[in-house]
């Protein structure tokens, strides 16, 4: 369920209320409100330049706030010095201090907080064990792989027992082949840390797999905030559907025998449609990559579309087609003979009609 | 091709030094290389009068480095971290002494601050004005580096105060640039002739002035021996510059 209510800055965990950030005359973030409960991971996701990293930097105190408030653990930290906020920051390329060993990096925040040497050593040992870096404690960052550097940055941030952990594009600097495994590894480490976590990413898969809730941003504003399932099953608008799931969301009119879309030019029989509730007020049809098929039917249940592009994806050919100004994706067998236009029909049960709750 | 060019440049620099060494070790160079035989006597002859001059030049160079760092550190920080028309103008103005002939700079300094001349402070001032652009050229890009600023941000988020961030992140992050700046300023001050010639009182010369005096008034052999001693003092500093540059290249991803 979308939650755009203004949170209280005195609440536990992290609360960002009506946040506005300006760079000169440019408003990078406008009125964004997000809450991260303790033990929860919120993924802020959106395309490049949407203001997600600025939001994270504002929480860390590295970017000045033009309006709104930031609360952490019941304290108002909107204008507090970064050193006194109680955040653990893991930047995009990890920013591991190159002149210090792995253990030296992890101990940095503990030294800054003047923790006695014996407690500092114990905490560093705990963090090395948590992030499986014990064997590499004496190494310099230049001798580590990308994944190992990420774990050093994570251990360094967690060592100070922050009220919130801030991760900026945690997997973006890694090779694509490694990301799947490291995503699962990161997820497990975050779960065992038990720390409120705010992750910024442009990768929807990362957001869906790491976030207990997802805040989706576009052009400096928050578009939708909810659980991955809520955003997946009931996107607020066509942008959310497309960005998060590569799906198409069409305005629809429901009738007893089905639904009409594309201004009535495509009538989909009721027996072909699944239905789901929506909290966004209007009846809409949600079509994913597997919702459509190419058909020989030429009645009102099919719509004619122009083939824009065909792409071989191994087990299938993915067609990009245009029907009355709307672009859809549809998969066909690799050996299918495809002309310049195709008739599209819904695969029974694979398209969802989102209907407002009565 | 590159290696051949490097070797040619090395030869171009080394040949005059070797020639000077040959002169300095010849009993009588007017009879040709090692004419009258090989000797180290000219070094023994050159060292006693040159030693206090070298100590003076080393002291001046060390003072110039110290004053330079005290001035250029905050100035470079301000220029790098607060880009504005004013900081850009400051950057240009600092470079002006490089374009002004040494004699003009010296006359201006002597006219404006004549009282500082006898103590040698005017010489230090002149060298600072002359070397400041080199320090800024090394430090401003290092301090403006986005990665360094991110490291500082992370250190602050971990609870470090400004002084700790400066000592544990900023200075180590700029160490290569700092080493380059310090060695460059030291070498420039130690070998500077123009301003020293006009600003410094003749009774307390610096090494380049003493060398000029020797070549003007003495035999070629002892003057060459003084040159070799001078080179021996400068060589470690120049080696440090080369090593610092190599380190900077290695640490570049």
The stretches of 5 or more residues of chain A where confidence is low (pLDDT under 50) are 1-7
- Average of pLDDT of chain B: 88
Helix content of chain A: 10-25%
Assign the CATH topology of the largest domain in chain A. Answer: Rossmann fold
The percentage of residues in β strands of chain B lies in under 5%
Tally of separate domains of chain A: 2
Structural class of chain A: alpha+beta
Give the CATH topology of the largest domain in chain B.
Answer: MetI-like fold
State the major sheet of chain A: 6 strands, mixed
**By helix and strand content of chain B, what is the structural category?**
mainly alpha
- Poorly predicted runs of 5 or more residues of chain B: none
Using the coordinates above, name the CATH class of the largest domain in chain B.
Mainly Alpha
General shape of chain B: globular
What is the annotated CATH architecture of the largest domain in chain B? Orthogonal Bundle
The amount of helix of chain B comes to over 70%
Largest sheet data of chain B:
none
Rg result of chain A? 24 Å
- Quaternary: heterodimer
Main location (chain B): membrane
Subcellular location (chain B): Cell inner membrane
Organism (chain B): Streptomonospora nanhaiensis
Transmembrane segments (chain B): 58-80, 92-116, 122-144, 165-190, 223-244
Structure description:
The complex is a heterodimer of chains A (358) and B (253). The longest helix of chain A has 18 residues, at 176-193. Chain A has helices at 52-60, 102-112, 117-130, 146-159, 176-193, 204-210, 228-233, 238-245, and strands at residues 14-23, 26-36, 41-45, 67-72, 75-76, 87-90, 164-168, 196-201, 213-218, 221-226, 248-255, 258-261, 266-269, 273-278, 284-287, 292-295, 303-312, 317-323, 326-332, 341-346, 351-356. Chain A has 8 helices and 21 strands. In chain A, strand 1 (14-23) and strand 2 (26-36) form a beta hairpin. In chain A, the strands form 4 sheets. A 6-stranded mixed β-sheet of chain A has the order 6-7-8-3-9-10, sandwiched between helices. In chain A, strands 13-12-11-15-21-14 form a 6-stranded mixed β-sheet. A 5-stranded antiparallel β-sheet of chain A has the order 16-20-17-18-19, with no helix packed on it. Chain B is mostly helical and 253 residues long. Chain B folds into 2 domains: 1-39, no CATH class; 40-251, MetI-like (MetI-like fold, Orthogonal Bundle). Chain B has helices at 2-24, 41-81, 85-99, 102-112, 121-144, 146-157, 162-173, 175-191, 194-199, 207-217, 220-251. In chain B, helix 2 packs across helix 5 (121-144), helix 2 packs parallel to helix 11 and helix 8 packs antiparallel against helix 11 (220-251). The longest helix of chain B has 41 residues, at 41-81. At the A-B interface, strand 6 and helix 2 of A face helix 6 and helix 7 of B. Chain B: Residues 54-243 form the ABC transmembrane type-1 domain. Chain B: This is ABC transporter permease. Chain B: It is a multi-pass membrane protein.
